[in-house]
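Hey, quick one: can you model this chain's 3D structure?
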Amino acid sequence: MARAERAALAAGIVSWISPAVGAAEGGTPPVAYTAITMFAVFVALTLGITWWAARRTRTRRDFYAAGGRITGLQNGLAIAGDYMSAASFLGISALVYSSGFDGLLYSIGFLVGWPIILFLLAERLRNLGKYTFADAVSYRLRALPIRSLAASGTLAVVLLYLIAQMVGAGQLIQVLFGLPYATAVVLVGVLMVLYVIFGGMLATTWVQIIKAVLLLTGATFMALAVMAKVGFSLESLFARVIATHPKGPAIMAPGGLVSDPVSAISLGLALMFGTAGLPHILMRFFTVKDAREARRSVFFATGFIGYFYILTFVIGFGAILLVGTNPAFLDAQGGLRGGNNMAAVHLAKAVGGDMFLGFISAVAFATILAVVSGLTLAGASALSHDLYASVVRHGRTSDVEEILVSRVATLGLGVLAILLGVVFETQNVAYMVGLAFAIAASVNFPVLLLAMYWRGLTTRGATLGGYSGLAAAVLCMLLGPTVWVEVLGNERAIFPYKHPALFSMLISFAVTWLVSRTDRSARARAEAGLFDAQYVRSQTGLGADSARAH
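Sure thing. Here's the predicted structure for all 550 residues.
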């Protein structure tokens, strides 16, 4: 303890951030000056961006959609930044490290949702909406119930996703700097709130762009370093992993993470269709000027994201080879120091030393801060734009009033994210994101898809179907193995599967179709007629009045 105190004294001003990297055999290592310096540089840079953005954020369009001035390439990088989260960088590499082949399920599942967005949603969403996906859905359906449903689905997705990011942030800083986990989570929460409250979408977008470039650069170096160790041969990499890992050949076989076909299908559906229902991703299509730029955004994002997920697979297997057999990275029980979620961080140390460890740690921190900022902005927009401005005030709000409400909502979400991050400390971050995807696939995606493509959809059907999907997804999660058994300590789960999307999506679509088909009200007939005007607008980008006249 005396050595830690002397190190803290020598560190001066920065010592309150981190007295040490973490305990190890033979004493406490010195302060991680490189990592602290890079963290400080990134935080200073992003706060500077926030100050710059705050001076340019005056209207609702500026706050929610960066004024529509983002280009397709910039937005593609920002979308990739939103998508390449802590769950991707830390969680997927951890799943590959612990489960091998099955970690690929997450990599592929996260990626294949993009063609759905590109071909089905991006163009119509940009032409129909203003700030949130609820704008596009409520164009021909009643605003109050639809926006209430959209806000409920958005908040459920945002909170689950936020938990994953906060857990990743807490574990990362705890391992590197020796801070208590709760203190680390609070630090991330405070910075997140500052970015969103003052900079809005413009600051969040540029933080995402910078973070995406840094993360792709760092992950590329790590993957190349791993491949160099095996002569740039995947066959050699896999052979050495099989020879090294305690599971032997089983590490390359399916079934280590998802053991039955129902769970595999359910997880795949959640990852594929949940992508098209993520509110913080859908919001980004309103930051570009037109549908053409929206399509270009998806094109660029797909390339960046696909490349990144290939890298995470190599990084996970590289961690098995270079980290899992190195005592310097293991605790007294033989597990990774800080848990499996730190596999990528330890691999950075193994291939690049302290300098690269500092860089990749700062990048991982940047990853978390950028994603939680986007999530918080999506949640705040659901509360301020979808609920307060559109439902409570019926559109009679000024820009100043709505932005103020959004900032207050941001503060509340920040506090809630910190509390939930502390409570769910032990959960795998990739699994938590899988749950968020299940809700997005069961609530947001069915309503959005049917509103754009099915003339027979009614407000009553969309509302009851959406809430049914939300209730089914949440109930299955609560009664499933993760919460009912692992969290609550019961002996056997009531719902036997970890992933509920297969069931909750079917329930959502079925209820929506059945209720809409049986709705014979005058309102339902009027909504079917409005679909024609909506279709014209979604194809041409005309305004509402022009679409009806056309």
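One thing worth noting: Residues 1-31, 543-550 have pLDDT under 50 and may be disordered.
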